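Interim report to the steering committee. The following record documents the input for Cell division protein FtsB (96 residues).
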Amino acid sequence: MKWLLAFLVVTLLVMQYRLWIGEGSMAEVTRLQRELEQQRMKNAALARENRQLLREVRSVKEGTDGVEAKARYDLGLIKEGETLFIFLNPEEADNQ
């Protein structure tokens, strides 16, 4: 009877170890759930960025307005007859 009781206690301890500490434990499941949520947030941000880039590509492909807007923003395009105004912050003007 002592051997059976000892065997049951040891079995219980081994099962508890696996439940709380070992592979597939509650702590590991919680950690993996946190990692999964973080990855989902990163994926959502990348999906938003992809949609924005797709809109830009479509805009550039569809006509000259998209190309012109891109050139104005990225390259500083100024059309003939337009006047460029540059506004400086007061702090930036003092440093120059």
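The chain has a mean pLDDT of 84. The committee is asked to note this result when reviewing the revised timeline.
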